[in-house]
Amino acid sequence: MTQLILDQPLDLAAAREAVLDDARGACVLFEGVVRDHDGGRGVTRLEYSAHPDAGTVMAEVLAEVEADFGVRAVATHRVGRLEVGDVALVAACASGHRAEAFAACGALVDRIKQRVPVWKFQVFTDGSDEWVGLGEH
């Protein structure tokens, strides 16, 4: 999993394989899936865009989480047009014990959402649309 920002479907199994080894018995996997609603409105699709430095920032976040929690971590974010049910984010953390893996994966997802410059364009069932995340990174 060398590319961290992809314009193709994400692979949860590859994320699992990238973090597990014989010393790590706990693996927490996260899939961020496009849902059919947001803020009380129906969603038909999303389109994700990323800054050219998004992969670099993602790598920095991964390194920080690994150092802070003593885990092995990977994550990939998808860009382009996604439909309801498509996977937008995959994250995986593995450690020797479950508590560290759960804490690390939660922190990883939070940090990605806070710092990685990826923006979401939502299209609603009523024909309206909006950008989410612009100006936050």
TrEMBL record:
InterPro entries named among the record's database cross-references: MoaE_sf, Mopterin_biosynth_MoaE
The record ties this protein, via Pfam families, to:
MoaE
Highest taxon in the source lineage: Bacteria
Protein name, per record: Molybdenum cofactor biosynthesis protein MoaE
| UniProt organism field | Luteococcus peritonei
